[in-house]
């Protein structure tokens, strides 16, 4: 009994382990402006790199003349594709993108040549001296053009990539469940609703532009300090182009100023290394803001058609869906985005019969790839709009309709995969509905800061209507479709300064999600120490996978847990050998080796002595399998996560202005390892969803980007962001470390439809396209 009391007291003394909310180690530095981001790096005798980019979305390159650029004083190198020593192509899934354009350009902003100079202004002047002769071609930019190459041509000629040569279709996935959607199935539905929906191209809009520093090494290799999301796959793509073995391409994570999927692809990594190896000098590249818009992938714009049939009492009978994603010039992550859109595009509902066809097109628009929500965001706008339309047709409450058809544990996805963990979809919706509503707008004592457009003095409360909308979404966690998703962690335990200290070393990219905080919490919990250091992330340790797919806490956190558990076992075994312990209830707590039955056995410093225990472990999630290409059947995803939202909006129906008054979120997180970080992730995801709902879109005209700046590409500021009350459920997933679920993407999936639903509730407008713009609210007729 005394031993149990001692253990309880020691456990209570540790507040920075799992379940606590210790402050981020990088938080104070970032708030004070002292954190070193990748763009802050410097090296003695450093050169500056810059790229010449195409002004055309589609053109043949007839000639490139670099002679005048080479004469600019201070210029050390001007490179074209002819100077690439290895493979000229790279890509995340399909190696279809040239490191520098070869004989044609396929999108506005494609890199053609590189300059290295002693000053960024010198590099800029030299870039302007490069002369390129183009044969300008009509860009292929619409769905109609892409699907009729016999008339409009090919973005990639079919013979170039025989493994996926389907004209201008990069990837497609079909899905059929139940009886599919036949005339006989349709006849069993009492009510049918259909709709066409469109999602614009959203940018990740991270505040830190792409940047990195490449340093040539004495062994003929290169060291790259880079802001990225996946160190090892960056290296895997880079090494063949540089004609180097992977071990000579060494990457270290530099400070990352946001990512959200936009750093999963390469940007300037290869370019900086090519210049550094060619000149023998360190080369730094920092994109300007407009170059950043050209230099990374974006969220796929989408056109979707949905048809749902239901019985008179609201039970869904079938869903017939088509999702067309514009992948842009190169494949990037489009195949995986298509897989997500197809497998999640029905929503978190039980639907006996489903037919789905999702495709990604090649076009001469900017390349699209990973962005928070990854295929599920676009689909959620479609199926949740349909749920509201169906509820209206049935005369039902939209929340009740969703709850009537909500998935729960034990149900089957249309892919045939059974949900084998909690799926509290109906409960999430109910909790969102039950949360207190914000007070109505006080028009008698109006604070003009609280009405749409008032901060720009465009409105003083006239013509304002309030609306409320609901939505719920589903998102997968981790990599899917048979990908061997794993993460590696190394944990070292030793005595430093007279106390036990743990060191955690992974290749996880800390992009703002708080992984470094959680890894320290896991080490404290498993090893019973307070002092934990996080080794800089680099390629000296095994891969941690990408910081994407809401996977890092699940996967790399799981690897840290495994490694720390192995260290703990090794230390206890050392004590058994030394002291002859026979207890089977020994653990590490508060810097001591303790037994629940016998109390403290020995201080850890005495047992460790001068020796260190240093172990590495890999965490693999349970295997998945590819979806069948024709039926979409298969155990494709390792975990599902759900979030429900309620949005309250005020709309000035005369001016077409919207103010989101409140955006409530309720999410099941399995286990909140760091509750404060969990709330922050949910609120951040909701804010990005707000941007997609009412303001964020890259405007493309004839293949050209028209708003490559934060002046013209609008993102939510603190003045646009409403209160975001968050309620967390913790229903453990038995297959996950600590029972946790990935958190970051689900609210981005679910929040956008709730905002649009609230605007519809206020205005009576159909609103089938996002972002909703003022002209949609002032020109569209109610019920259109």
From TrEMBL:
InterPro entries: Ald_Oxase/Xan_DH_a/b, Ald_Oxase/Xan_DH_a/b_sf, Ald_Oxase/xanthine_DH-like, AldOxase/xan_DH_MoCoBD1, AldOxase/xan_DH_MoCoBD2, AldOxase/xan_DH_Mopterin-bd_sf, Xanthine_dehydrogenase_dsu. The keyword Transferase does not apply. Residues 1-14 have a biased composition (Polar residues). Pfam families: Ald_Xan_dh_C, MoCoBD_1, MoCoBD_2. Keywords: Oxidoreductase. Its EC number is 1.17.1.4. Residues 32-138 form the Aldehyde oxidase/xanthine dehydrogenase a/b hammerhead domain. The keyword Oxidoreductase applies. GO terms for molecular function: iron ion binding; xanthine dehydrogenase activity. Gene3D superfamilies: Aldehyde oxidase/xanthine dehydrogenase, a/b hammerhead, Aldehyde oxidase/xanthine dehydrogenase, molybdopterin binding domain. Residues 1-25 are annotated as: Disordered. This is Xanthine dehydrogenase subunit D. It comes from Streptomyces kaniharaensis.
């Amino acid at each position: 009994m005394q031993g149990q009391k001692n253990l309880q007291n020691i456990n209570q003394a540790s507040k920075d382990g799992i379940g606590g909310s210790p402050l981020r180690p990088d938080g104070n530095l970032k708030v004070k402006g002292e954190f070193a981001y990748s763009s802050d790096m410097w090296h003695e005798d450093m050169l500056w790199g810059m790229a010449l980019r195409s002004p055309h979305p589609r053109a043949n390159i007839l000639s490139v003349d670099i002679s005048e650029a080479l004469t600019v004083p201070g210029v050390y190198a001007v490179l074209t594709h002819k100077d690439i020593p290895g493979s000229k192509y790279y890509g995340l899934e399909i190696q279809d993108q040239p490191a520098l354009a070869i004989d044609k350009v396929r999108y506005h902003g494609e890199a053609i040549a590189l300059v290295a100079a002693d000053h960024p202004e010198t590099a800029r002047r030299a870039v302007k001296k490069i002369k390129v002769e183009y044969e300008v071609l009509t860009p292929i930019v619409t769905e109609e053009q892409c699907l009729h190459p016999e008339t409009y041509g090919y973005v990639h000629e079919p013979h170039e990539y025989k493994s996926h040569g389907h004209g201008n279709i990069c990837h497609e996935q079909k899905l059929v469940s139940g009886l599919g959607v036949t005339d006989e199935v349709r006849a069993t539905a009492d009510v049918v609703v259909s709709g066409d929906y469109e999602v614009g191209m959203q940018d990740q809009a991270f505040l830190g532009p792409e940047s990195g520093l490449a340093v040539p090494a004495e062994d003929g290799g290169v060291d790259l300090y880079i802001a990225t999301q996946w160190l090892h796959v960056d290296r895997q793509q880079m090494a063949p182009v540089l004609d180097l073995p992977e071990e000579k391409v060494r990457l270290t994570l530099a400070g990352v100023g946001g990512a959200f999927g936009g750093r999963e692809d390469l940007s300037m990594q290869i370019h900086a290394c090519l210049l550094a190896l060619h000149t023998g000098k360190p080369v730094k590249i920092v994109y300007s803001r407009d170059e950043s818009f050209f230099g990374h992938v974006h969220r796929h714009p989408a056109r979707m058609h949905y048809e749902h049939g239901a019985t008179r009492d609201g039970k869904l009978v079938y869903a017939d869906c088509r999702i067309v994603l514009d992948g842009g010039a190169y494949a990037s992550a489009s195949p995986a985005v298509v897989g997500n859109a197809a497998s999640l595009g029905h929503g978190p509902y039980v639907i006996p019969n489903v037919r789905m066809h999702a495709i990604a097109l090649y076009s001469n628009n900017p390349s699209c790839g990973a962005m928070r929500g990854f295929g599920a965001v676009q689909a959620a706008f479609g199926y949740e709009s349909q749920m509201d339309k169906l509820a209206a047709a049935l005369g039902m409450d939209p929340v009740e309709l969703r709850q009537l058809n909500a998935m729960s544990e034990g149900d089957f996805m249309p892919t045939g995969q059974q949900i084998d963990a909690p799926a509290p979809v109906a409960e999430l919706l109910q909790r969102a509905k039950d949360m207190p509503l914000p007070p109505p707008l006080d028009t008698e004592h109006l604070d003009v800061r609280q009405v749409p457009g008032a901060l720009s003095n465009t409105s003083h409360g006239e013509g304002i209507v309030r609306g409320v909308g609901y939505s719920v979404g589903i998102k997968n966690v981790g990599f899917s479709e048979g990908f061997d998703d794993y993460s590696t962690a190394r944990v070292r335990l030793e005595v430093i300064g007279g106390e036990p200290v743990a060191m955690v070393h992974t290749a996880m990219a800390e992009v703002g999600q708080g992984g470094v905080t959680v890894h320290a919490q896991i080490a404290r919990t498993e090893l019973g120490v307070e002092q934990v250091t996080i080794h800089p992330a680099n390629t000296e340790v095994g891969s941690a996978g990408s910081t994407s797919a809401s996977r890092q806490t699940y996967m790399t956190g799981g690897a840290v847990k495994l490694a720390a558990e192995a260290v703990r076992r090794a230390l206890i075994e050392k004590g058994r050998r030394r002291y002859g312990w026979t207890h089977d209830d020994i653990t590490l707590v508060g810097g001591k080796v303790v037994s629940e039955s016998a109390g403290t056995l020995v201080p850890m410093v005495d047992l460790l002595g001068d020796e260190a225990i240093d172990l590495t472990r890999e965490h693999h999630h349970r295997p998945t399998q590819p979806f069948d290409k024709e039926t979409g059947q298969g155990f494709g995803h390792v975990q599902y996560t759900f979030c429900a939202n309620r949005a309250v909006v005020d709309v000035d129906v005369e001016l077409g202005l919207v103010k989101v008054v409140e955006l409530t979120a309720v999410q099941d997180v399995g286990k909140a390892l760091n509750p404060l970080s969990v709330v922050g992730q949910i609120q951040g995801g909701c804010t990005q969803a707000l941007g997609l709902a009412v303001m964020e879109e890259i405007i493309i005209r004839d293949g050209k980007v028209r708003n490559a700046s934060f002046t013209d590409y609008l993102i939510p500021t603190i003045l646009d962001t409403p209160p975001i009350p968050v309620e967390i459920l913790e229903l453990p997933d038995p297959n996950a470390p600590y029972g946790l679920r990935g958190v970051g993407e689900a609210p981005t999936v679910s929040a956008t439809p709730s905002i649009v639903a609230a605007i519809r509730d206020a205005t009576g407008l159909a609103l089938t396209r996002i972002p909703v713009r003022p002209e949609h609210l002032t020109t569209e007729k109610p019920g259109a």
